[in-house]
Amino acid sequence: MEDFTALPDLASRAFGGGVVSANDEFFAAADHLVLPHPAGHAPRTFDHKGQVYDGWETRRRREPGHDFAVVRLGAPGVIHGVDVDTAFFTGNYPPHASVEAVEVPGYPGPDELAGAKWTELVPRSSLQGDSSNLFPVADRRRWTHVRLRIFPDGGVARLRVHGEVVPDPALLPKVFDVAAAEYGGRVVDCSNMFYGNPQRMLMPGLARNMGDGWETSRRRDNANDWVLVQLAAAARLRFADLDTSHFKGNAPGWAALTGITAEGDQLELLPRTALRPDTPHRFRLRKAPEVTHARLDIFPDGGMARLRLHGRADREQLWARMRR
User: Fold this and answer.
1) Confidence class for position 313, pLDDT limits 50, 70, 90
2) Cβ-proximal residues to 171 (8 Å cutoff; 6+ apart), any chain
3) How many other C-beta atoms are found inside a 10 Å radius of the C-beta of residue 50?
4) Environment class of residue 128 by beta-carbon count within 10 Å: exposed (0-12), middle (13-18) or buried (19+)?
5) In whole angstroms, how far apart are CA 186 and each of 57, 126, 199, 296?
6) pLDDT, tens digit, for every residue of 103-116?
7) Which of 116, 191, 252, 314 has the largest CB neighbor count within 10 A?
8) Mean pLDDT, rounded, for 8-31
9) What is the pLDDT of residues 152-187, one digit of tens each?
10) How many domains in the chain?
11) How far is CA 138 from CA 98, 141, 144, 289, in A?
12) CA angle 166, 167, 172 (to 5 degrees)
């Protein structure tokens, strides 16, 4: 089975995902479902409604029916799988759940979404408590919203919706960050990610701390570390942001960027260039034809908070992804 958990979480608050509506939030708000960090738990912490949970929890049902929450994807796209995470819910998790999806343009409200034609991606399925419940999705259409149904009630810590980002080209400027995860850029290979996953470099916003970036182990040989990024579409790159913020005693000494064309040709975009610790750098790149991938080499090792690659993307490729 595909390890879809390595793909971005389209519903994450980090992309701007949010809960549009929920029929019940008596014990804990549904907004917790899309928080990017793992759920936590502090036993024996009570408020006026009971134990405090880092998740969504509904009251005990005393009549027929079930509970639901509607989530707007922060990054619309193709869903490969979902994780209904019941972390720390043991005697109060739902025994079953299902997931549906819909594509509605613009910014629909609860009433418009309630009347939309939803497609079932995950049929009613059994859940385990205090567990990641993983469900692959075969439908390869583009979606903007998902609806989690729980039967009959209970608590879910997080809803992860893993997949490929497919942005609407009509809403993209002519020049944008074609490496950004929110537009479909993704890391496809790297030499080392001992302290931090390189995909974090492509996330929106500034890094919060040193743990919110890519960091390699210390090298004891004569080689260097690197990461390979697949761009949102083939693009002519113009500027690169190499941000070493928070990395002070462990920033790379130098970096270089290489573009790779669809034919496999390698083009030097930024020669080996010195970097400063804890500093956002911007570099003008050498003019080159369209490239589909970019390789960042750091010398010899260290950490990078963010990588931005600004360029003019092939609009036909972007529209082809939408039409697919």
Assistant:
1) very high
2) none
3) 12
4) exposed
5) 33, 32, 7, 13
6) 999 999 999 999 99
7) 252
8) 97
9) 999 999 999 999 999 999 999 999 999 999 999 999
10) 2
11) 15, 9, 16, 36
12) 155
Number of other residues whose CB lies within 10 A of the CB of residue 12: 25
Domain harbouring 181, CATH code: 2.60.120.260
Please tell me whether residues 80 and 158 are part of one structural domain.
yes
pLDDT value for 1: 57
Residue 233 to residue 163: CA distance in whole angstroms = 17
Give me 285's structure tokens: 């790149």
* Domain that residue 207 falls in: 171-323
How much is the average pLDDT of 249-266? 98
Extended strands (E) in 198-253: 214-215, 225-243
User: What does the CA dihedral 133, 137, 141, 147 come to, rounded to 10 degrees?
Assistant: -30
* Residues 55 and 146 grouped into a single domain: yes
User: What tokens were used for 57?
Assistant: 């929890």
Per-residue pLDDT, 51:
82
- Alpha-carbon torsion, ordered 41, 201, 101, 27, to 10 deg: 20
CB 32 within 8 A of CB 56: yes
Helix (H) or strand (E) holding 281: strand 280-284
Strand partners, 69: 22, 148
Could you tell me the two tokens for 165? 């980002």
Handedness of CA 228, 170, 315, 78 (dihedral sign): positive
Distance CA 21, CA 30 (A): 8
Point out the domain boundary residue: 165, 198, 223.
165
CA atoms within 13 A on the CB side of 189: 6
Q: Which of these three, 165, 195, 226, is where a domain ends?
A: 165
The secondary structure element, H or E, covering residue 322 is helix 315-323
Residue bearing tokens 């613009």:
106
pTM higher than the cut 0.85:
yes
Per DSSP, the residues of 43-107 read TT-EETTEE--SSEEPPPP-SS--EEEEEEEEEEEEEEEEEEE-TT-SSSS-SEEEEEEE---S-
Question: Rounded mean pLDDT of the chain?
Answer: 96
Question: Average pLDDT for residues 86-100, to the nearest whole number?
Answer: 97
Residue type, 92: N
